[in-house]
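Example 4.3 (complexes with small molecules)
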Amino acid sequence: MTMPLSCFKNSMLSPQHINQNSLYTPNVTMAKIIKIQDEFSFISRSEHTILEALEAQNIATEYQCRQGFCGVCQVTLLDGEVDYLEDPIAFIGKGKILPCCCKAKTDITIELPYPATPIDNERE
Ligand code: FES
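Answer. The structure with FE2/S2 (inorganic) cluster bound is encoded below.
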């Protein structure tokens, strides 16, 4: 049985922006809550990097290499901890993380350097 994704207060995204990849399944034991500033929260699947979790929510993201080389995906970690899949090569500023190559170790709060805008799939 799957349960619908829980969205919390001040959500910018309506239910139609939540796709099937973001459904919480009870057998996923390590799912973490990812909060974007004070705007929107969602439950991330444990196998997703933070970048993949944002994409699963249809949130527009910035990236290039997706492997920790370029640093383009850098966001600010306001609260919580992350685990890197491998040590990234790109320079990481103080308080920043590379969401392409890390997963949420705890519930986290991040700040995007751009508005958390849902991708409008109907325009594509
Ligand atoms: S996309 Fe290049 S470091 Fe994340």
